[in-house]
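REVIEWER CHECKLIST
Item 1: Sequence provided? yes
Item 2: Single chain? yes
Item 3: Sequence as submitted:
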Amino acid sequence: INAEYGEEDFAMSLSAKAALAPTGVLRAGINLSNFLLVSTRDPLTGVAPSMAAELGRRLGVPVEFVLFDHPKLLCDAAADQVWDVAFLGADPARAGLISFTAPYAEIPCTYMVPENSWIQTIDQVDREGHRVAVKSGAAYHLWLQRNLRHASMVETETLDELSLIHI
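Item 4: Structure as written out by the authors:
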């Protein structure tokens, strides 16, 4: 037992290691499409890879990054148990298969409209005849599915496609 920690801390870390890295390797699911969480792909840098590396270091296990091009693919892979931890937005639609911790980050979100749009406040968005573009499968998409009542959604597979839509 490390003299820096008491016996209870050591037992808890063994329990955490068994729960989070049951194979002896921390397999971290990484959503490559969120530039807020992954800054570069080669080498892999950003908030999510850094947090996974630190978690692995604290558990005393190596980290293997399991990469996904889309958050929906990362979520769907939970059923196959190919990753042990992942860094993605918590959402009730995902909670059937994934257990979420308290938030590690909060990302403020809003709508983007053309400069000359008459829409000036958030409450003006959800109206009949309005269309809201969103990346399919993202946490924002799941939130909009639950909360939009009047506006319709235009879904894209990538963020780049969003910039091509003129709503």
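Item 5: Key structural point noted by reviewer: The first strand starts at residue 26 and ends at 31.
Item 6: Recommendation: ____
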